[in-house]
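So, could you explain the following?
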Amino acid sequence: MAIKSKKDLRIRRHLRVRNKVQGTAARPRMAVFRSNKRLEVQFIDDDARLTLAGVSTSGKNAEAAKELGSKAAEAAKGKGIETVVFDRGGFAFGSNLKALADSARAAGLKF
């Protein structure tokens, strides 16, 4: 059995989640990506294969995640989006993603 890298394992987790999560025009997918330097959020309509809105930060600590959650909610509200499906992208729902999700919920997004 070949040794898998962390990236390969994350992609497998993400594919398992993506088999169950589908974004529509009425309820788009809120996809989160975490790199070594920043956090990114996109609102995606999978039926039309269209990105409706996207926001990113310059840092990746919990404070930046809270700020990103509120910015993402504002961007979604600007596009008329109120309810979303949360897609953590195969990443662990740890302190940063939890802070992002909580601040997005506090700003008015429903998921």
In short: Strands lie at 29-34, 39-45, 50-56, 85-87. The CA atoms of residues 37 and 59 lie 6 Å apart. The domain at 6-106 is CATH 3.30.420.100 (Nucleotidyltransferase; domain 5). The two ends are 39 Å apart (CA to CA).
